[in-house]
């Protein structure tokens, strides 16, 4: 795992590439390099920061230049051994053992036609000295990031937006619609970027830039197509075997590998499989201050993590999180690149930091299983909402009135079941796509519009329409798999993979996600929705597969949350900051957010009648991000 950057036909592209690469040093502290080439009336520069994981020698150094091709590559290729054998049989002679060289030679032999054969996570730039073209590529599922800015014939690119924003900030403008989207979702969806002049290369796509300024774009993998092909699949397969194979491939490394272990199904399943391949493997788990966990009514995940570790001989490391939130909040906002309001990023960062200090460079995460196998509460809740709509109104109305009056917390503790009930009733009677959006986003359309400057009403409409267009962009007849597909296109790359990449790389640690694998994804969409949610139990197909190795106590335990005690933090650590941002924040001063609407959120949360802690947390992250964006433009 590494950091990549470069400049193509860009004025002073060499010094720019050096500066971009330097900002990415945390992604690759083990080495750096730069490639330079004159191409007609312009120059090409590729930069690289290396985190050495496979082939620790100089034969794995980058940018890698060989026989007229130059490659700067960020990622891991899990079918590298198979492709290497195939290429060797075709006469290719390799200098080292890195997967970087396999990618380079695969490109030479197959070009864009071979991209669908790559199984892994990757983003790379490859320059062809013969044609003078630069091609940028991003993996099928958007695990690895790639940002770019175009200017005339020129292109500047980097693994992280912060690098481009720092160096080009004076010429970049904040995209108000992207910030509106972040308020709705609490992240910026992958189809948008926080700066108008920048873009994210879409998952499963490539872009080729030519010396004459022409740009060619293409895609080599479609998640929608995979889901639709899966719906037509009529054969049988062994899901456990698919996941076991993926886990085995994700353990490939020349350095120690560890796992996240929350004690939940996904991390326990992967840890058990990994321990079978590598006995004595290390795992890391988190806990919170007892008073915070009690206030948030959080389950005792640590108890289950200990049971899994004992059963499979795992070396478990326990980390209690009692962070200095006021210090971590601006630091994490910087590292996350765009405004992302999920406090789980802090958990990932602190776990990866502890692992890195212990000498671990690579960790396995259970990310992606909930999206693919219908494991979130929203999936079950939306199926229950269909049934709830059949209940007579004379029964529904008294229930709704009672729930509305119940508090979500007192001064000493929170009531999780009441929070869930209020959330459920906020979308239970809505049409399918609207209900699904409302079940996991922050506001309904009217609430979002009321929070913002009235001039942004059009942006609200655009964001809502984009969600509907994405949700309906398929021919699936299966309600549950429609939700899984929408999650895999929106929620997974825009939030979970994004914060996992940035928070782990901030600690110079690589996180691998065996569930987010093209073969596992294919298998997941071959499973009909009625096999994923069965008798009010989500993720049943995965649970049945996991029973081949895990005890039922772990497989069927209540779902935990990889989150943080937000209500406790808001009422204690962050209360002064919330007041400051509400009254004197830059977003309020700029007229983007309305002070009275913010104050209403604060009052509702303080009264205990509504849980607005996630809303307020994201507003804090958005405020800090905006301050950084304003500072970048003025330096």
UniProtKB/TrEMBL annotation:
Active-site annotation: 2
NCBIfam families named among the record's database cross-references: asn_synth_AEB
Keywords: Amino-acid biosynthesis, Asparagine biosynthesis, ATP-binding, Glutamine amidotransferase, Nucleotide-binding
Domain spans labelled Glutamine amidotransferase type-2: 2-212
Family assignment from sequence similarity: Belongs to the asparagine synthetase family.
Keyword ATP-binding (UniProt): yes
GO BP term, example: asparagine biosynthetic process
InterPro entries assigned to the protein according to its UniProt record, in alphabetical order: Asn_synth_AEB (IPR006426), Asn_synthase (IPR001962), ASN_synthetase/amidase (IPR051786), AsnB_N (IPR033738), GATase_2_dom (IPR017932), Ntn_hydrolases_N (IPR029055), Rossmann-like_a/b/a_fold (IPR014729)
One Pfam match: GATase_7
Superkingdom of the source species: Bacteria
Broad enzyme group: ligase
Listed GO MF terms: asparagine synthase (glutamine-hydrolyzing) activity; ATP binding
Catalytic reaction list: L-aspartate + L-glutamine + ATP + H2O = L-asparagine + L-glutamate + AMP + diphosphate + H(+)
Protein name: asparagine synthase (glutamine-hydrolyzing)
UniProt-listed Enzyme Commission number(s): 6.3.5.4
A single Gene Ontology CC term: cytosol
Binding site for ATP: 286, 365-366
Pathway entry: Amino-acid biosynthesis; L-asparagine biosynthesis; L-asparagine from L-aspartate (L-Gln route): step 1/1
Binding of L-glutamine, residues: 99
Gene3D superfamilies the UniProt entry points to: Glutamine Phosphoribosylpyrophosphate, subunit 1, domain 1, HUPs
């Amino acid at each position: 795992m590494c950091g990549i950057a470069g400049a193509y036909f860009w004025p002073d592209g060499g010094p720019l590439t050096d500066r971009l690469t330097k900002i990415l040093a945390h992604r690759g502290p083990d080495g750096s390099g730069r490639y330079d080439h004159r191409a007609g009336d312009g120059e090409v520069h590729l930069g690289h920061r290396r985190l050495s994981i496979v082939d620790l020698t100089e034969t794995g150094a980058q940018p890698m230049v060989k026989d007229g091709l130059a490659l700067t590559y960020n990622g891991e290729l899990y079918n590298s051994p198979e492709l290497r054998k195939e290429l060797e049989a075709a006469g290719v002679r390799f200098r080292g053992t890195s997967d970087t060289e396999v990618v380079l030679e695969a490109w030479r032999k197959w070009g864009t036609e071979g991209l669908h054969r790559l199984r892994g996570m990757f983003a790379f730039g490859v320059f062809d000295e013969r044609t003078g073209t630069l091609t940028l590529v991003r993996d099928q599922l958007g695990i690895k990031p790639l940002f770019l800015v175009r200017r005339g014939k020129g292109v500047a690119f980097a693994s992280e937006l912060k690098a481009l924003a720092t160096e080009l900030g004076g010429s970049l403008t904040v995209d108000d619609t992207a910030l509106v989207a972040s308020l709705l979702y609490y992240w910026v969806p992958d189809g948008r970027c926080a700066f108008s002049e920048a873009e994210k290369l879409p998952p499963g796509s490539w872009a080729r830039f030519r010396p004459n300024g022409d740009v060619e774009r293409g895609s080599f993998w479609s998640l929608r197509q995979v889901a639709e092909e899966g719906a037509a699949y009529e054969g049988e397969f062994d899901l456990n075997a698919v996941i076991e194979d993926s886990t085995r491939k994700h353990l490939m490394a020349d350095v120690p590998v560890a796992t996240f272990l929350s004690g939940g199904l996904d991390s326990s399943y992967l840890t058990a499989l990994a321990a079978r391949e590598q006995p004595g493997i290390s795992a890391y788990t988190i806990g919170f201050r007892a008073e915070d966990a009690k206030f948030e009514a959080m389950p005792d995940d640590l108890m289950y993590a200990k049971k899994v570790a004992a059963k499979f001989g795992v070396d478990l490391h326990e980390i209690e999180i009692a962070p200095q939130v006021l210090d971590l909040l601006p630091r994490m906002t910087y590292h996350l690149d765009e405004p992302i309001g999920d406090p789980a990023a802090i958990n990932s960062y602190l776990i990866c930091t502890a692992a890195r200090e212990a000498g671990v460079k690579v960790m396995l995460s259970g990310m992606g299983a909930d999206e693919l196998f219908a494991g979130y509460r929203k999936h079950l809740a939306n199926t229950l909402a269909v049934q709830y709509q059949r209940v007579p109104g004379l029964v529904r109305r008294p229930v709704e009135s009672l729930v509305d009056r119940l508090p979500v917390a007192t001064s000493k503790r929170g009531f999780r079941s009441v929070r869930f009930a209020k959330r459920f009733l906020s979308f239970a009677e809505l049409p399918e796509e609207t209900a699904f959006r409302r079940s996991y986003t922050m506001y309904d359309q009217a609430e979002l519009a009321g929070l913002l400057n009235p001039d942004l009403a059009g942006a609200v409409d655009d964001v809502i329409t984009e969600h509907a267009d994405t949700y309906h962009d398929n021919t699936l007849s299966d309600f549950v798999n429609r939700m899984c597909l929408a999650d895999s296109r929106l929620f997974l790359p825009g939030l979970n993979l994004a914060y996992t990449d940035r928070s782990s790389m901030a600690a110079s640690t690589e996180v691998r996600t065996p569930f987010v694998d093209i073969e596992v994804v294919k298998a997941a969409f071959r499973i009909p929705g009625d096999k994923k949610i069965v008798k009010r139990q989500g993720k049943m197909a995965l649970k049945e597969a996991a029973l081949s190795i895990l005890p039922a106590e772990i497989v069927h335990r209540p779902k935990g949350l990889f989150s943080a005690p937000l209500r406790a933090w808001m009422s204690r650590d962050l209360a002064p900051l919330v007041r400051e941002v509400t009254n004197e924040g830059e977003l309020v001063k700029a007229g983007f957010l309305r002070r009275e609407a913010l104050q209403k959120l604060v009052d509702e949360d303080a009264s205990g009648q509504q849980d607005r802690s996630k809303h307020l947390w994201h507003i804090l992250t958005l405020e800090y991000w905006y301050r950084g964006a304003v500072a970048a433009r003025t330096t």
